[in-house]
Fold this protein.
Amino acid sequence: MAKQKTPSAPARTKKERDAATEKKIVTLATDVAKRSLAGNEPIVRVPTRTKSNTLWNKKKGILQMGPAAQERGLFNLSQAKSFMQTMLHSSSIKDLIAAEKTLSLRGMFYKGLHTVAGTKEKTFADQDESDGILEDLEVSLAALREELHIFAKKAGTMVGNITIIDSGDEIDCRRMGSGGYAIPSIVEPDVIKFKKCDAKFVLHVEKNTVWSRFNEDRFWEKHNCILTEGGGQPPRGVRRLLRRLNEELGLPVYCLLDCDPWGHYIYSVIKQGSISLAFESERLAIPDVKYLGIRASDYRACGLSDDVQIALNDTDIKRAKEIAAYPWFEGHKGWQREIAGMLNNGFKMEVESLITKDISYVTETYVPERLKAKDWLE
Amino acid sequence: MAAKEAAVVAEPKKKSATPKVDAESMATRQRDISVSEFFAKNRHLLGFDNPRKAMLTTIKEAVDNSLDACEEAEILPEIAVIIEDLEPTRPATAKSSRYRVTVVDNGPGIVRKQVENIFGRLLYGSKFHRLKMSRGQQGIGISAAGMYGLITTGRPMAIFTKPKAGQPTHHIELAMNTKTNRAEVTFDKEVKVFPPDRLRNLTAGTRALAEQSGFLTAEEFPTGTSVSIELDGKYQRGRGSVDEFLELTAIANPHARIVFVPPTRVTEDDEPDVLTAAEASAAAVAKVTTETNGVIVFPRGVHELPRETKEIQPHPKGIELGILLQMLKDYEATEKGGTLFKFLQECFCRVSASTASGMCESIGLTSRTKVADIGPPQAEKLFKVFQESKLAPPPTDCLAPIGVRQLLAGMLKGVRAEFYAASSREADVYRGRPFQIEAAIAFGGELPGDETARVIRFANRVPLLFQQSACSSFKAVSETGWKNYNLSQPRGGIPVGPLVIMIHMASVWVPFTSESKEAIADYDEIRKEMKLALMECGRKLGTYLRKRQRMRREGLRRDVFERYIGEIAKAVHAIMGADPKAIYDALLEQANARTAVADQVLDEDGKVIKDEEPSGPDDDGVLIVHDAIAPAVAQLSSTPFAPLDFGNTAKKQSGAGVTGKSNTSSKAGSKASSKSGSKSAARANSKPDSAASPKRTAKKAPESAARTELRARAAKAASRKPGSNKSSNDGPRLF
């Protein structure tokens, strides 16, 4: 498999990174102050996070953010409020850096929440508004979320032949019981260090239920691997950890996802990054991740019963066609065939459908056979 | 007519008794019908259909006469209308009750020998035979009112008249004999005092007003007439009431001062639902009045009398063949041997020497042809020539339009709105009679927004209160496309919205649909002029509404910016320590500059009537009341911004007191304009006298009330210039 690579970003101390982030925020505020006092409209440049501004870097095999940016001005009726919110959150982040503390997304929502002086209007209507502003800030400041001292809730589980050090605590992922190790939101080297790894590959499954099946069957032990799960679309912490395992330890990553457009897109995101977080693709994407299944052909190949079919609805069909048209899938014969196969079937299948064969069919037969036959999509 | 019918009905009886009825015997029963008798039986034709309307008509006729008399004698009218309750013990629900109506004016008075004729005869008057603009026309009104009183109460009408200052006053009581159409004098004495002392001491209110020399003083009434009629009537407020009539009269006659003493007891309405709606509308037309102790004073708005009108000769196109024949006959009778040429020149207007000779030639006669030699065939030819000839329209100095400036002043005084527009058309002609249409509209402000527009109609300055839908003006309003002016209008109906539409027709002869003078007949020429006048007003309103929309939008924008500026200044300060006040001020200045339209439009259109400079009618006939609009703009921010603590609030703004005040005033206004709907509902629940609530009290002498009001509003408007930092839109939010 791939050789161990050096980390993409030069390792900096936490202090250095904090100082850099703080400087960026002060620059932003100084610009606003200068423009205001000079009689110009204060603006914040926010790179656009839309599909149209997402570029497919074929060489690197990842999605990257394009050059388009929006100028968010105070004197634009539709932007005035978000401008104000951007300034509020900037101020909050500076406070966090100074206090050397981190807050969750929800915590940030509450930190910025108050009533605008003299009105009955709240600064943030809901957490979604706040989350959006924070994502904007990440891109405008070109700083990672963890550099802004913000984390998301934990949503991912890991177990396997690896020992890590999380914030100074040594964690042996072989001894995690039935629950597994919860992957935190921030998994940068200053939080999580890899101490000892015997595993030869990583198997990432879509959801917790499937993960439990594998864990109960001690799959990771039998096949000497790491088993992860991301609760559907994996959050950034999970993706970053997979990337580090792949990049730093040179472990190949295999995915076991549902056979539906949702599953296909999860694979796409893990492989080349997402549209909304295209600016983070460089450190999140795993271009050589492999898609083990479920494949559209498995219905026949595994001899599954009619009962496991879940009919594709109109939204599914539309989404499947959209995915097929993405530039990174467009020229890929294997994927074109796979999506066409699913559309031909006219139904989708979940990983759990394999349970109809046998409770441990997926862990004892399906995955080992695929790995052995190197039968996957890339 | 009635008498004739009676005769016919009586006939069969007689036939059976004495079968031999011939022309001879019938002839014994065929006789003259007195006009008085005719109208006594058909009183609804004159507007005495029911007790409530009888009361109104009586007052209307008396007030019309008073105003006409004052104007003709070039006296600024001073009129008192007093209703006394003669049966105060009667239950309030009674269908009718006995009242005494007294109308006193400071007109020229009436010489003794004419009193019987003027008050005691129907169809007797000075106004019928001439072509001159006046309120009264036929000479029926006041005599009919007296007759109605006599019929319902048996009491004669009492007249006090003083035709010459320093001379005694005639006190005469008249009872009309309907059979003879003549008055019988039941009392005739000379007294010293005018106006009668008794009237000043009626109520606490009249006594108080009289003490301030504001009510029936001998100085104000050196000459004059007082008419009292006792009648069976009903006094009730609301649509079509005495109150409304006087209110509207005050609008159309800003040169008159009217004092109204309503009866102590108001008849309760038996259909409260209907009335509450009417009350709400009536309340919407609030008055610039002072009301103390129940006495309502409609102050004088302007001190010039309306233009003196000239009497004119008929226009050739305005007569019928029969009338031409009669005129020829009359001319021959007075001017023995007069020529046709002279006849044409003397008896008609707009016939010059050359047109006269041209007309003579075109019917094959010469200028020297004598009138006596013209037979019916030639007369008919002449009539045709009249119709075909190209003649200038009749002269218009016989008309006294209210005028754009006075229209605006009148509307401003009577209707509390935010936008006023008026237009006065050029005179035009229907059936050879000159007429002139004026229209005014008031929009917004406190007018109810969810009802159909109120149409107020006037003919020769007299309000028309009934038969709205039969009136030409009503049709003109429905036919005007109000949707073009950003108003909603149901198909073929009256527009809906906070709108009052006023239409005035001035003419030497207003074509009423009936003797009670309630609706203008629907002549195409008249309706066309009305529509043109309305369209002119409508266009101005449309322009204004579009501007206002933009202004509101800009105001809203500014408001959004202002809201967040404080937060931004604080955040920037927290991040990099910049002076928050400096940033706040800099951003606020930018916000105001960027939304300058919100100010600009206010000023651009702030064309306020300048009362001091009689520079002729206002060019564009538009008036905007700023304190009724501005608040809507500042509506969202009407709660003053809480002070942000920047630590350096030492430099407080100097004009804090001023700004604070204007802020509160705009707050009150904003509620009114934004919630006009709910407000009108709230009003509907309260009683009318209290509901007419924002009765603006005149601060100085009542005459100058309207003027003071105008000036106050103008001053307010001027204080809202952009750039001036003390304007209410700046500062107060923060410090």
Remarks:
- Residues 64 and 278 of chain A are 5 Å apart (CA to CA).
